[in-house]
């Protein structure tokens, strides 16, 4: 027992350290991004293209750090009542332009009234990881459909793409750390996504067929107004 306890303490030190390094690295990335954008406003088209690529790569680095940070410190610090429609609006604002740029479309159709308990930032991170995978799986005329409804006390969210899909072997390895079929992949995205969903008492189901597309279904317990019925750690 003692030995185990020591190990846990060591793990905590390592994960705190990893989290603070990741956190500190994000700031200079953000500052660099700002200066590059300033430069972009006063230079010719050719150089603008380079600056654009530099900003994209910085964003990629920031995304990897965000996933890594969640991996190192997966606790959800602030849980509150989330409106699915509101969160999806923000996600749409961030990812619809990317889908368009990749020659596809992102169709989001969720009703106004669905809510559940969770951490807003982490929830968006989980969905962004999934939707980005769908965009990265685009063939020609990529379409991502997202819709939601209440079913048996669960807020049920579907994310479906018509992209390249997965083989059964790939499907079985989904969420395994470092499993990636991409040259620039990290294989951290879905592992983090699955962890976040689990921490928010959610469950996820994945269907995929090679050459046809992928559908992920996420379910969270519906939140009713009476917060008093909730266990302590999910109270806002
Ligand atoms: P990464 O995106 O860095 O490769 P992820 O954990 O996000 O890591 O995904 C792991 C792997 O799962 C991907 O490399 C890809 O092979 C597969 N995958 C995930 N989502 C999809 C999808 N919507 N369509 C096809 N393949 C997918
Ligand atoms: Mg990914």
Automatic annotation (TrEMBL):
The uppermost taxa in this organism's lineage are:
Bacteria, Bacillati, Bacillota, Bacilli, Bacillales
- Provide the Histidine kinase domain boundaries: 20-224
In terms of the parent sequence, the fragment covers: 407 to 642 of 642
Q: Which organism is it from?
A: Paenibacillus sabuli
| Name used for this protein in its record | histidine kinase
């Amino acid at each position: 027992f003692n030995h185990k306890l020591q190990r846990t303490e060591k793990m905590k030190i390592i994960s705190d350290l990893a989290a603070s390094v990741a956190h500190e690295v994000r700031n200079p990335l953000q500052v660099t991004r700002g200066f590059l954008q300033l430069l972009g406003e006063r230079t010719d088209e050719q150089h603008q293209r380079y600056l654009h690529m530099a900003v994209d790569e910085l964003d990629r680095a920031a995304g990897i750090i965000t996933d890594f940070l969640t991996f190192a410190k997966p606790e959800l610090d602030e849980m509150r009542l989330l409106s699915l429609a509101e969160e999806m609006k923000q996600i749409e604002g961030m990812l619809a332009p990317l889908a368009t740029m990749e020659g596809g479309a992102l169709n989001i159709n969720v009703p106004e009234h669905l809510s559940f308990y969770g951490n807003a930032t982490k929830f968006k991170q989980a969905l962004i990881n999934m939707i980005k995978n769908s965009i990265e799986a685009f063939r020609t005329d990529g379409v991502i459909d997202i819709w939601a409804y209440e079913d048996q006390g669960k807020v049920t969210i579907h994310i479906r793409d018509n992209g390249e899909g997965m083989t059964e072997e790939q499907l079985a390895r989904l969420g395994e750390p470092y499993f990636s079929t991409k040259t620039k992949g990290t294989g951290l995205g879905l592992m983090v996504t699955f962890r976040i969903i689990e921490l928010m008492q959610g469950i996820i189901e994945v269907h995929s067929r090679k050459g046809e597309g992928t559908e992920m279904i996420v379910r969270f317990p519906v939140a009713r107004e009476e917060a008093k019925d909730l266990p302590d750690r999910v109270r806002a």
